[in-house]
Task: structure prediction
Amino acid sequence: MFKIIAGDFPKNAELTTDGKYFYLKVFYPKERINLSRNVEKIELMTEEKAKSFLGAAGLGLIGGGFLGPLGLLAGILAGGNKKEICFACYLKNGKKFMAV
Result:
């Protein structure tokens, strides 16, 4: 589905869904975060923004939109697998990750 490429979680963490909610599944230390309740914002990344993210610079909100941040994620999932999309996800607890 999605691959974690940077941020506060290990790269082997997985983004999954049970059809109703999105989860971030971390294998060590074992943790399962319900993204449907814990996302502060999601931002689509450009090359310049990705470099800033990797340098720990703060980024602005893009595309929260009508359905909120998870609506953006759902839209990305509905788009199929024809394109590679990179996004940053900021959680309410202050942690963040970038995924492709």
User: Anything to note?
Assistant: The longest strand covers residues 2-7.
